[in-house]
Design brief:
With about 350 residues, the chain is of the alpha/beta class. Helices cover about 30% and strands about 15% of the residues. Strand 9 and strand 10 form a beta hairpin. Helix 1 crosses helix 5 (about 125-130) and helix 9 runs parallel beside helix 10 (about 325-335). It is globular and about 60 Å long.
């Protein structure tokens, strides 16, 4: 299949809106990561997303809307706390899960009774959804299991020849996917993101963070979100996270680097500005200043994509506070929860 590349002009977006209306697949930028979009009300179009990504069919998709009022057709009803959340954070990097209405196809929700809805703030995404005239079902536009795409070149690497079109909207602002919160029962964060638990608490009062955001769940039946059981963000290398103070972690990392390279392994370090000099000539990617967590978040997926040429990746960690929780959630998943 020829994949057409469009600039985010009015004409380009109109053409992509037509492709979506006609059942095709378009990758588009959002403020978090690129999405792979299809008509969210068309079962057949939605199924082709799973095929293009190689995504397990039991992993549900998010429906993207352009106006808050579009949510009312997708959920069975809108309780007050959900309305308050939408008023506070739509448009923006928050996905809300609530009971679905009958118009939402089962392919979107993987048979669940709930549906995830998000209203992106990215202007190109907003224009595309408006132009398509339907909610757009979209997972991240990576091949399943690969790091999410935060720039046009990542989408091209994973999706060229497989989908109808890509809109080149440059780099995404946040670089990690949206916060996912379930509003069925006690509000529960299923995936941390730029909207932090504290920000949600300011609107909702008590909010629970699912323990499986930061630990492996061995019992599939107990998992609150199907996405938690699938391997995520995996570089082709084995990745290991190192805990302790920055200096303690750096010493352990340097020791393991030397041991593993001595065994003939190709090893890479994900370091931070504060520790990079400590590693000397050892091969590393400087992820940025430990004090600037949003910069670290933005650098994570691009760095994980560069890990493919290595056998082992040794990663520094940061405190799980504020947006640090989102960073550590993605890092620990990339490491398959391996840590020292
Ligand atoms: O920032 C984002 O959210 C990006 C952009 C493109 O909007 N999208 C994204 O989609 O990250 P995806 O499919 O890669 O991740 C959606 C996550 C998955 O882990 C999925 O299992 C979970 O949300 N999810 C979706 N619907 C759900 C539901 N009804 N119940 C529980 N989890 C759900
Ligand atoms: Mg994804």
């Amino acid at each position: 299949m020829e994949t057409k590349i469009f600039d985010p002009t009015a004409k380009g977006i109109r053409a992509c809106g037509e492709i979506i209306k006609n059942g095709g697949l378009v990758a588009f930028p959002t403020e978090t990561v690129y999405g792979l979009g299809a008509n969210g009300l068309d079962e057949c179009a939605v199924s082709s997303i799973f095929k293009a990504k190689g995504r397990p069919s039991d992993n549900p998709l998010i429906l993207h809307i352009a106006k808050k009022s579009d949510a009312s057709a997708l959920w069975s009803d809108i309780p007050n706390n959900v309305r308050h959340l939408m008023d506070a954070f739509f448009p923006g990097p928050l996905t809300i899960i609530y009971n679905k209405s009958s118009i939402v196809p089962n392919a979107v929700t993987a048979g669940l009774k709930t549906v995830a809805v998000r209203m992106p703030s990215n202007k190109i995404a907003e224009a595309l959804i408006k132009s398509a005239g339907v909610p757009i079902a979209a997972p991240s536009a990576n091949k399943s299991g690969r790091p999410s795409p935060t720039g046009f070149s990542h989408v091209k690497d994973d999706m060229i020849g497989v989908i109808d079109a890509i809109i080149d909207g440059g780099d995404c602002d946040f670089g990690l996917e949206s916060t996912v919160v379930s509003m069925v029962g006690t509000p529960t964060v299923l995936r941390p993101g730029a909207i932090t638990p504290t920000m949600l608490e300011q609107v909702l009062g008590d909010v629970v963070v699912s323990p499986y955001c930061m630990s492996k769940c061995e019992n599939e039946g107990a998992m609150p979100s199907p996405g938690m059981k699938h391997r995520h963000y995996a570089p082709r290398a084995d990745a290991i996270a190192f805990f302790g103070t920055p200096y303690e972690a750096a010493e352990k990392i340097a020791f393991n680097y030397d041991k593993l390279t001595g065994e003939g392994k190709r090893v890479l370090i994900l370091s931070t500005r504060q520790t990079s000099a400590f590693y000397g000539e050892r091969e590393k990617i400087d992820m940025g200043d430990r004090g600037n967590i949003s910069a670290l978040c933005k650098n994570l997926f691009p760095a994980l994509r560069k890990c493919d040429d290595f056998d082992v990746v040794l990663c520094e960690t940061i405190p799980e506070t504020g947006m640090g929780l989102a960073y550590m959630n993605r890092l620990m998943r990339a490491c398959g929860f391996n840590c020292l």
